[in-house]
């Protein structure tokens, strides 16, 4: 991984002499590591990369730099539409598909002068927490050693982006986060993973998994790098119906910057940090608990006040999330039928079912079938509607503990509360790839759980996704048993994105 010093130079607009070499170093790393890690599924041709790099170097030399990302290597998750490379979402269904337009956030990066290295691997249509369910084969953890027998997962569904950033194939990468798909791989790979507030970054051109949950996410080597990318892509887009409207966006941004300005240094005196009691769950490893406690001590040492808080509906977050996400996925992915979109079975006698069975992988099929069932008569009333009500209660739980007012609600903020919440990003270090594949292929499993066990990995990341609030995973420690990274997650109120990154940067000082 790049050192903190090099990363800061790479995004420094004054570093003209080094800007041109950024993409070259990234390409060298791709050629060195990608065959082993399988992080990139498509890489931009050298001629295009060279042209983009030369133009950036020329602008910097002439003092006309487009900004801090000019000439910086960026990866793009394979579910963002791009005109220069295929967009397949890790699925046979979209094999070879090239979009006629760029996703809005991709366009923003191009306009900022970023050098787009290529498309990164992902779980099929974002359905997974391991980057093991993809037509390109799994992405493995960059912490694995060459020739290692038991490989670890990179996390999903943005595992390709996380592995690419962690192994210096790019300074930062776009990911998507529906229930933790940026924060979980960031924790497993030892980098920063940031999910902004829902509606802050345009979803136009992001291939949909679950409409009400999907967020553009950012993976970066440092919190500073994530912040630069966020500032570049966080803009109103009229083509995104879920985008935060300009007037409210301006009000939220002003309140966000004012709060962030209260802590201009690593002195956190006056900051109130909440520790949710419900996040002490059974699957959590001793290493994760120890690192969480170390994070609490770290913030307390810098002057923060530690406050126990309760989020009583957290226990229902996972079932509510998978009910809603799978229902939306079943609806959204119905379009890939081989007639309107996507792969079609070759035989003349092939049916609609044949096409979808051949096109979708096992995990995608499982989630589509479950989602379709949830939306059927009877189950809709007994499962989907209660899950929506539970989601509302989870949102209210967060509103009841944050001192900041949620601008999307008319209810006032509590007089006593906290500014941020601190918890682990994952229950432990990256699991073994073989264990994930075994659990996913076994409907019952040795303990009667099977595939459900793989869903529990999202236990800490799902609640902020249901509430639409910002959350960031920061590398903070390593497992004492195997040395693999474990991240800590900071969560804040809706719209306080830059404030959250400011506080996360003080946590990252330790890493």
From TrEMBL:
Location (main, coarse): mitochondrion
GO MF term set: ATP binding; glutaminyl-tRNA synthase (glutamine-hydrolyzing) activity
Record carries keyword ATP-binding: yes
Active site location: 77 (charge relay system), 157 (charge relay system), 181 (acyl-ester intermediate)
Pfam assignment, any one: Amidase
GO biological process, one term: glutaminyl-tRNAGln biosynthesis via transamidation
Alphabetically ordered keywords of this record: ATP-binding, Ligase, Mitochondrion, Nucleotide-binding, Protein biosynthesis
Top-level taxon of origin: Eukaryota
Gene Ontology cellular-component terms listed: glutamyl-tRNA(Gln) amidotransferase complex; mitochondrion
Protein function: Allows the formation of correctly charged Gln-tRNA(Gln) through the transamidation of misacylated Glu-tRNA(Gln) in the mitochondria. The reaction takes place in the presence of glutamine and ATP through an activated gamma-phospho-Glu-tRNA(Gln).
Family assignment from sequence similarity: Belongs to the amidase family. GatA subfamily.
Subunit structure, as described in the record: Subunit of the heterotrimeric GatCAB amidotransferase (AdT) complex, composed of A, B and C subunits.
Descriptive protein name: Glutamyl-tRNA(Gln) amidotransferase subunit A, mitochondrial
Organism field: Syncephalastrum racemosum (Filamentous fungus)
